[in-house]
Amino acid sequence: MDAAAELTRRRLQLFPITAIYAPADAPGRGAELSIGGCRVRALAQEYGTPLYCFDAATLDAAAQAYRAALARHYPGESAVTYAGKAYLSRAIARWTQRHDFWLDCTGAGEIGIAAAAGVPRRRILVHGVNKSAVDLEMAVQHAGVIVVDNLAELHRLAPMLRAATNNIALWLRVRPGVAVDTHAYRQTGQEDSKFGVSPQEAMDAVRFCLDHGLPLNGLHFHQGSHFHDPAPIGPALETVLGLVAEIASTTGWQPQSLSPGGGWGVAYHEDDLPQPDVEHYVQFVAQRVVEGCRQRGLKLPSLHLEPGRSLVARGGVAVYTVGAVKQTATRRWLFIDGGMADNPRPALYGARYSALPVSDPDRPTVGPVWIAGPYCESGDVLIEALPMPAIAADELLAVPVSGAYHLAMQSNYNGARKPAVLWLDNGAATLIQRRETLADLLARDVGIDL
Q1: How far apart are CA 259 and CA 139, in angstroms?
Q2: 3-class SS at 89?
Q3: Could you tell me the CA-to-CA distances from 22 to 36, 52, 105, 387 in Å, in that order?
Q4: Considering the domain boundaries, does residue 426 fall inside one?
Q5: Which of 38, 53, 293, 376 is flagged as catalytic?
Q6: Is 376 a catalytic residue?
Q7: Considering the domain boundaries, does residue 447 fall inside one?
């Protein structure tokens, strides 16, 4: 296998599990990328670019991997919670229910999407560091679990819960004082994090709930997102289980449910391969919960994991059209029709991506390219110094691992219109979100003369 073919083979490991290069359906073309049994070139011609495609088989496989690993390694009850903040639409919300997942919603908007999709109340879990009055009202109306971030929120919730006719459970979000190894913007468990309550505040919150008859039955903590080593979860679990033991000895209360968060990472670039092992992550967490409870004489709680991006990131692919190629003093630029408006992660975190041409990927590599979008920011660079073959204007590029935190964080910067989103399943492409139009951009504009 020559160097170009080997590079294609490695990069293809970042793509959905159904991704292949199939023989062209017309003379004179090289092999063409196919995902979920659908030819990407044909999808781009029909739906335009930028275009996002989600592969059902890849999402289903990730879901099954988590459920199977929990069944193998945790002897008590367990559940998987999908993080709506990764990407949420009514179609994705309904997909979560095919796997009996809980759905984590932050704020009234995500709660509304979950409710519109028909997600049962008992599986809607609400997060948020500063929930508004509307957020709390929506949570009380539609959710089964509200994760309380701070004491002020708990005090606001108390009268709302006493007046509620629905069965709602409360969890406390605890700040364990230990973060995972990830970008500083994605760390959430450190002592000075904006998220959660301190151990002493947790003790005060438990007493408040017991004194006021509030339905507290769980604890939650989270240490950060997109980490590859579960080791820091160990000391955090020790801290939280030690707190549980102290609370139990003082008040008699123990959590029925425990969520050590999630955020397990994925490979975004060929240099990140192999893919982080879900089995290793789940086994690490499960064994330490079991052993920590045994050592302290605690009841084994229902274990809830929040896999986040590792459920959907690899299942998503972004497709762009190259508009121009420019050579500057030291760089070969490929300008595409998307960028920081549909994927702000490189600008926010320095996230590193890879890409492949949709057609004829095994052409000889001629050097690195910088792939940039059309927006009026020097930071609108999606990929830097990526070895690629010669690419011409009007070619299509596919960027893998685009299923999480792209569409959820997209914007209308420079009047960008949000892309169409497709669900690919066994040769069928279903539109789950249409492309935004100019009328959509103007819909909120009152249009008065000033």
Answers
A1: 19
A2: coil
A3: 12, 20, 39, 22
A4: yes
A5: 376
A6: yes
A7: no
The rounded distance, in Å, linking the Cα atoms of 313 and 268 is: 9
Our measurement of the distance from residue 395's CA atom to the centroid of its chain's CA atoms, rounded to an integer in Å, reads 29
Burial group, residue 25, by CB count within 10 angstroms (0-12, 13-18, 19+):
exposed
Residues 287 and 323 in one domain: no
Same domain as 287, residue 431: no
265-277: pLDDT as tens digits? 899 999 999 999 9
Domain extent for 330: 3-48+315-442
Given a contact cutoff of 8 angstroms between Cβ atoms, the answer to whether 277 and 250 are in contact is no
> Within a domain: residue 307?
yes
> d(Cα 148, Cα 381) in Å, to the nearest integer?
38
Are 26 and 16 spatial neighbours (Cβ–Cβ below 8 Å)?
Answer: no
- At 333, which helix (H) or strand (E)? strand 332-336
Nearest to 77 by CA among 331, 256, 298, 293: 256
Helices and strands counted in the chain (H then E): 13, 20
Distance CA(177)–CA(73), nearest Å, equals 26
Give the residues across from 368 on adjacent strands: 387
What is the structure's pLDDT at 196? 80
Q: Is residue 450 part of a domain?
A: no
Q: In angstroms, rounded to a whole number, what is the distance separating the alpha carbons of residues 47 and 419?
A: 9
Residue ending a domain, among 312, 338, 358, is 312
CATH number at residue 345: 2.40.37.10
Query: How far apart, in whole angstroms, are the C-alpha atoms of residue 113 and residue 234?
Result: 35
pLDDT one digit per residue (tens) for the chain, 450 residues: 588 899 999 999 999 999 999 987 777 678 999 999 999 999 999 999 999 999 999 999 999 999 999 999 999 999 999 999 999 999 999 999 999 999 999 999 999 999 999 999 999 999 999 999 999 999 999 999 999 999 999 999 999 998 887 889 999 999 886 543 443 433 344 455 566 888 889 999 999 999 999 999 999 988 766 777 888 888 889 989 999 999 999 999 999 999 998 888 899 999 999 999 999 999 999 999 999 999 999 999 999 999 889 999 999 999 999 999 999 999 999 999 999 999 999 999 899 999 999 999 999 999 999 999 999 999 999 999 999 999 999 999 999 999 999 999 999 999 999 999 999 999 999 999 999 999 999 999 987 888
Question: Phi first, then psi: what are they for 418, rounded to 5°?
Answer: -65, 145
Contact between residue 338 and residue 320 where contact means Cβ atoms under 8 Å apart: yes
The answer to whether the CB of 346 falls within 8 A of the CB of 421 is no
- Domain co-membership, 222 together with 332: no
411 contacts: CB under 8 Å, gap ≥ 6: 340, 341, 344
